[in-house]
Amino acid sequence: MCPVMGTLSSDIDALVDEFDFLGDWEERYRYLIELGQALPAFPEDERTEDTKVKGCVSQVWVVIEPDEGRLTLRGDSDAHIVKGLVALMDRLYSGRTPDEALSIDPKEVLGRIGLSEHLSPQRSNGLASMVKRIRAEAEALKA
Amino acid sequence: MTAHTKTVAAFDVDALRAEFPILSRQVNGKPLVYFDNAASAQKPEAVIEAVANVWRTSYANVHRGLHTMANEATEAFEATRTKTAAFLGAEAASNIVFAKGATDAINLVASSFGQSLKEGDEVILSQMEHHSNIVPWHFLREQKGVVIKWIPVDENGALDMEAYRGLFTERTKFVSIVHMSNVLGTANPAEELTRVAHQHGAAILFDGTQAAVHMPVDVSEIGCDFYVFTGHKLYGPNGAGVLYAAGDWLDRLPPYQGGGEMIAEVSEDGVVYADVPHKFEAGTPAIADVIGLGAAIDWVNALDRTAALEHERSLLDRAEAGLSEIEGIRLFGRTQNKGAIASFLIDGAHPHDLAQLMDKYGVAVRAGHHCAHPLMKRYGVPGTVRASFAPYNTADEVDAFLEALHKAKSFLI
Question: Is it true that the peptide bond before B277 is cis, omega within 30 degrees of 0?
Fold first, then answer.
């Protein structure tokens, strides 16, 4: 899921560059949706109440697990835009150490790629609670 | 001659739009197309001014005041009660109770009427109810063991009247039905529903939240026991809703909430309640909002309502004609004479994705379950996209909506 990782900041810069290359919001949204479509299939038996993200008006499932001291994330949604946001979180957080994960400011990153509108509790797309869960998992892994 | 000219003259939507300051704003750099009217309608200048004028010129607490401003506020407040009674065709102003909204009004009836219900007594609802007309009855199911029975909805979005007649037993005490569905636009046959309920000795309430906006309502023709609606969907302020109770129902029902304003006398060991309707209005009411509702009713009455509703209907027809051409479309609510509400799904396109993408093009629609889980379950869908129209909307906006929908769809399919 997570190939060769660079440093955290170079990975974030690479993500920002990909979006910078795109012009208007329409291209950015199309790309976001493509990122979601490219996610590996999410196992049917993992669609449970436990993996379901609360606070989202569409259905979203996220599993965050440690793997040799690093975070892994996989997830899915029945809505394309939210699924794209899951893919972004995967790009940001999978393969990070807990300290790296906790140092990420997702609002700043989303701002740099022109999608900051999605990280507000009022959007009810579940992204805010997704980030909360990732950070809690990172804290637990650190302890 | 003049009257004739008026009916054939084109509905002047531009003049109407000019009364709504918010309609000139932009959203995401695009002119706003507001098709979320069934959730809440925008406000004309007349309503905005009426509310502001209360604060600016004659605000004080209502009732029992012995000073000029209290009397002015009370007169304006009570004038809305009179206007509301006339708007609904009610017997008298004393048949009108102000509530926070339709939800609050239904909770009042369920709570007060519900006190007389016993375990095994039955209440009839329909599958197309908004949660506001379901959950208060679930309270009675949980607290008292009241049984809820459901009128099925057919594929076109009409109530199954045959099934309705079959639901009654000697334990049926109450029927609570939406007059016009907030999802389907279906206008239910209120008079027939009432006639059947009364034949079986059951009382009946209509949730007129959408109907009061999209069709003329006359409770004296319907003959129902209770009718509720809310101000904010009728171009009025939030926080002012209406309960109409026929005949002496308000005298017969116990009060809902206790507090100031609803009493005649309070002692250490007893209470004498105020006369109706004040018995049901505990605490300081939403004074400016109720006065604003009066302004909204004046505004609606001043419309050529027939022309305005025909205009709304033409927007619905235009939208549904355009929607019908989309591959994979499913339209919900296919009855005749429905209100100006279009609900739909497109195969392979999530309603939330469509609504979010359409917003980027300046088009405001609602997507989701519309607070009607049982109806969504009936159709086996998680939600729909809903476009709902007001007289201030235009044919050009319908075209912009259809264009935005096609663009949004191209992202997803």
Answer: yes
